């Protein structure tokens, strides 16, 4: 896959992280503008997550029926228009509706970038490309809040959505001019009427579902970390809010680094081999994190070491799990990508909610959810690995 295509797919993959992390610094200003509190502004984030879960399941069958380009252009255009509507929303209800539509458009890039990679690459090459795309997934949470803060301070919260509008418009132009249709003309097109049947057959495919759940449950640990780390770092250990980004960024840097190392390792070992080993690293680091959290150390650094290993290992787990799940999907790659994303995102969002439900004023809830995610991910990964071996024999 050439560099131009990878750059375009990277930009499309950034829609989700940007639309989530970019506007977070604008919450106080938005609450003031709509005469409400930040708790109600957070509804715009929750509705975006809902739109992502629903929208992915829509684009999959569309991609298998009409190809990749048409649904992708529709989604990016929808994201552009919805971003503009967010910037000029007169009421909070209007903003919430616009955010939902924005999510419906933004998830097209997430679904179809995976499908395009699957069209063009085998399992090993797919894992390499997914590892490169992890660079975007790792950098966005670091850069987006900082850039968003600069825009809010200089031009107001509306400027964030104006910037998203311009970004998505440029992506639409890039797709139009530089991203040809990847679904082969000889490939049979799947009818929309068979969408539910297609999803049903994928859910019955235990190898696909095993890899999807392995990646999704491991990713759930990252969502648990995102949900719990502000309390643990800032409230529990007194890290100044302005320094929180440095701790968050150091873990994201580990994630990026391991993803790039994974791309190198794939030249010698396949994605299934690396996935089966890395989930154990994730589990052991998670158990170490839980043990340290239970001791409630006075200093923060004993928690940071196993936490760093957990988040960094995801740079290997997520691209390899995605590549294994998408391998050999062929004509139903769009539906497979949609179900993969929806399953992973739903499980991950549930883990973030569990951290809040278990909150007890310590770091244990976050560590417990991460370690349980590691335990379940290992169990599913090993069962899937055994099933692959038995089928091969």
Automatic annotation (TrEMBL):
InterPro entries: Efflux_drug-R_Bcr/CmlA, MFS, MFS_dom, MFS_trans_sf. It is found in: Cell inner membrane; Cell membrane. Keywords: Cell inner membrane, Cell membrane, Membrane, Transmembrane, Transmembrane helix, Transport. Pfam families: MFS_1. This is Bcr/CflA family efflux transporter. It is a multi-pass membrane protein. One of its GO terms (biological process) is xenobiotic detoxification by transmembrane export across the plasma membrane.
